[in-house]
Structure formats: C-alpha cells, structure tokens
Amino acid sequence: MNWTEILDYNPIDGSLKWKMRSPSYYPDPATAKTFNSRWGGKRTGAKSKQGYLEIGVHGEVWLGHRIVWEMFNGPIKAGMHIDHLNGIRHDNRIENLRLASPIQNAINRKIQRNNRSGFKGISPNKKKWAAQIGVNGSTVHIGTFDTKELAHEAYCKAAHLYYGEFASSGGTR
C-alpha cells in the first residue's frame, strides 16, 4: 500500500494524520466530503493493550510503526519485525525504528514484570546475585556477584558482546 497517499507523517513525534482525500478516491463525492470533514487532517490510530499504535485502513488493522517504516523504506520483508530502539511501543519516530529478526526484536525487550531483582538477567542466588544471558537458545552463566548492581554491570557487558547494537539492559523498575 502507498501510505503517503492517505497519511501524513509528523517527524517530531512520529504521529500520523489522515490526508484530505479527493472525490476520485471514493465512489461518490458525498463519501469524500464525509470522510474529509470528519477525519481529514486529524491524528489517526489508537493505542492497543500492548502499547502499539493501531490504525484501521480499508477494513484491516495496521500497526503504526510498520506503516512509518514502509513510508520511508518500502515493504517489510516477510518474517521481519520493526524494533523500537527505546522500547516505547508507541514512539514511531523513524529514528527510533529499525528492521530486526524476531530474535533480535526479542533481545531488545524490556524487563519482565515478575523479575525480583529489578534488573534484566539478574536473579537472587543464596546471599548473592547471579547474572545470566540467553544465547542461541542456551543460558550462559555470567557469574555470581555480591550486589545486584555489579551483576547488572556484568550482564550489560555480556549483552553488548553477544547482541551488539540490539543489546538492552531492559531498564529497571
């Protein structure tokens, strides 16, 4: 779909607005007038339960970040994801988006809600803190540390080593 025909992109906040449509876009001029008076020039989309911007176009629901990516880069190759660098799912500024494999996209996810340490990859281990990281389907033990902050520092170094630009500390709670 040629998104630039129907949507305008705001580079400051990554939002999308409906363009005014010519009567030739619709089967009759009255439909065009109704759409333009109700929606033309207005911001589009609604935030999903997962935090993504969703937009209904021609009876289908599209994700805003995928639309923005396609506006700038063309169609997304099958099986590829669009990753939000800062982890904020509704931040659709083009500089915050990158093409990623499903594994790369999962690597950049935020900290799990049930995490007890407050740090990604860190868990209590007796009276110390263990750091571990998933690599190619296996768990790699990084080490055991006196504080969760030291364990987190080691995790971040390992994440950078194994994941490169997709490394994420996951933030803290």
Key words describing this protein structure:
single chain, 173 residues, alpha+beta, Homing Intron 3 (I-Ppo) Encoded Endonuclease, Chain A, GCC-box Binding Domain, 2 domains, three-stranded antiparallel β-sheet, 4 helices
Could you characterize what this model shows?
This protein has 173 residues and is an alpha+beta fold. The protein folds into two domains: 3-105, Homing Intron 3 (I-Ppo) Encoded Endonuclease, Chain A (Alpha-Beta Complex); 111-166, GCC-box Binding Domain. The protein is built from four helices and ten strands, in the order E-E-H-E-E-E-H-E-E-H-E-E-E-H. Strands 3-4-5 form a three-stranded antiparallel sheet. The model has no long low-confidence stretch (mean pLDDT 91).
CATH class of the largest domain: Alpha Beta
CATH topology of the largest domain: Homing Intron 3 (I-Ppo) Encoded Endonuclease, Chain A
Q: Give the SSE order as H and E letters.
A: EEHEEEHEEHEEEH
Q: Over all CA atoms, what is the radius of gyration?
A: 21 Å
> What global shape is seen?
elongated
**For the terminal residues, how far apart are their CA atoms?**
40 Å
Low-confidence stretches: none
Helical fraction equals: 10-25%
Q: Which second-level CATH architecture of the largest domain applies?
A: Alpha-Beta Complex
